[in-house]
Every structure is written in C-alpha cells, then in structure tokens.
Amino acid sequence: MARDLNLLSMAHFEAVARLGGVMRAAEDLQVSASAVSQQIKLLEQSLGVKLFHREKRHLRLTIDGERLFQTASQAFQSIREVRAAIVRQRETHHLSIRVSPSFGVRWLASRLSDFCLQNPDWDLRVDATPSFTEFDTEVVDMDLRYGEGDWEGLHTDCIVHDFVFPMCSPGYLARLQAISDDPREQLRHARLIDSVKAYYRWDYWLPRNDVSGASMSYPCRFDRSSMSVQMAKDGGGLILDSMTLAFEELRRGELVPVSTEFEVIEFPGYWVVCPHRHVGRRAVKLFSDWIRDKGSQHMAEARHWLDGRGLRTRFERRATFAGPDER
C-alpha cells in the first residue's frame, strides 16, 4: 500500500541500480555508503525479497530487483524532468505584450531577436491585435499603441516619433511627372490610397498644403497601413502614411517621396501603454528601456534619411484623432 512505500529507500535503490554500485550511488546522493546500504536493507526487509545478488564487491539485480528498477527508474526520471521544468519556469522571466498589427509586423518583429539575444531567459509573448488591453481583467504587461498618448488613467511613454508624407513607387511618380512638373498638379491627377485609421489622412493634409481639386473618392481604402504600403509599392497609387512602417521600402527605393516641396509631419505616434501599477515591474522597465533605445536609433536613422533627400520636417500634434488605432 502507498503508506508502506518508503520513498527514501526507493531513491537509494534506484540510484544503486542505475549507477551500478553503492559507492557511486552514495556520491550521487551525497550521503555515506553505509547510509545507502542501510536503506537497501530496509527496502528488502519491507518487501520481503532480495533485490540484489551480492557477489563479493559486485551487485547484480535479481528478477524482483529488475522489475522494481524498471518502474522506479521511469518514475524518478519523470520526477527529475518535472523538477527541471519547474526550476526553469521559476528562473524564466515572463513578459506579455500587445501591439498594433502593422507596427508589430513592420517595425517591432525585425528588432525582437536583439531583445531575445540580450535576454535569453525571458519568456516573451507578443499578440499583434487590434484589441486594446483591458488591464483590469486581462493578464498583459503592456501595450504598444499608435495614437495621441492620452489614454486616461494609464501610464504612457512615447517610444517613436512618426514621420508622415506622400509617397509612391518610382514608376508611379514618373507617370505623375509626365503629366506636370508641379507636384500639386500631380496630386490632382493621382490615385489616392486611404489608410482609414491613420492619424493624418488626405482630407486633413491636402488643404493644408494648398492642394485643391484632388479626387477624394478613394478607390482603395485599407484599415491596415501595411496593406496601403504594399499597394503603393506595387504602383497602385499614392499614400499619405507612416515612414516608420514604410522605412524599409523607402531605403530600398521601392517607395519615394512625391516632392521635397511638402514638409514632413513629425509627431509622437507610438507609445508604451500600461497601468501605473505595472511601471515598477522589472519586465516592463527592462523592455521599455530597450524599445525606447530602439526607437531613438530608428528616429536618428529616419532623420538622416530625410535630411539626405532635402526633406524638411514640421513637428505637429493634432487636436483631433481619427479613431482608435489599430492599424
């Protein structure tokens, strides 16, 4: 019966059978050889059978001993594996993040390997989802969100300033330039692609840049900037969108600015968002510091790219916002 099972004796027996001798078992268990021998004797007495044939200094399992060892070996191996898993879990740091879909795919994903290399013991979960976290009911450490940064009752920290300007493929720009040398006239003939959840949209941008007569019918509307960027890259029209999300296409020359006559709008666009009670968590602080550093690197590279093409920036914060992020 279970109450008669002496686990200490079983552990000593399993070690002797597995390692092939009392001395080796004693070293493995960090006890004396006499203690091991005593536990084997007690186990044999409780079972009423011999577990080993004793031949001078050599021990050989009996048939009963072999049967017991097969079962004990599997059981103790399972226990060792579970113990190791528990220790690993205890020593692993956990971090759960939600991120705006396009930002997660087009900006964050390519940088996460650096964080994982720096923090190999971290268990990281990232959900790229349009759903904003309900921190009172969901187990999430932080959100990475696009917007104004004015989420009431939550801690916000801007990590990336965005840069917004009209862009398109080189081929599409050549078609517009064949129509006119005037960039405003080009825009009047352009196929405008609408990113419906972008912070800055054509209906705001066009009148502020003295462009009238442009078609606002928007033959293509996307609720993800990643889709708008792909459409523009494929020559489908003109986008007014995020340099943060389109930077790789811009660097490769797959997208180009429409004109240096238009100022680039700079605004604080991407944020770490979490409850104030989460700010002191080691995981939140470590990741926030890391992503803030990556954001600073990105902004320096973006400004260098813009300067190299003669594009001027204008810092701006709008009083109104088109709606909740989730590009």
UniProtKB/TrEMBL annotation:
| Record's keyword terms, sorted | DNA-binding, Transcription, Transcription regulation
SUPFAM superfamilies (alphabetical): Periplasmic binding protein-like II, Winged helix' DNA-binding domain
Domain HTH lysR-type residues, every copy: 13-62
Give the Gene Ontology MF terms in alphabetical order: DNA-binding transcription factor activity; sequence-specific DNA binding
Transcription keyword on record: yes
Would the keyword Transferase be found if you checked this record's keyword annotation? no
What are the BP-aspect GO terms? DNA-templated transcription
CDD domains reported for this sequence? PBP2_GcdR_TrpI_HvrB_AmpR_like
Q: Which Gene3D superfamilies match?
A: Periplasmic binding protein-like II (3.40.190.10), Winged helix-like DNA-binding domain superfamily/Winged helix DNA-binding domain (1.10.10.10)
Family assignment from sequence similarity = Belongs to the LysR transcriptional regulatory family.
- Protein's recorded name: Transcriptional regulator
Q: Which organism is it from?
A: Paracoccus zhejiangensis
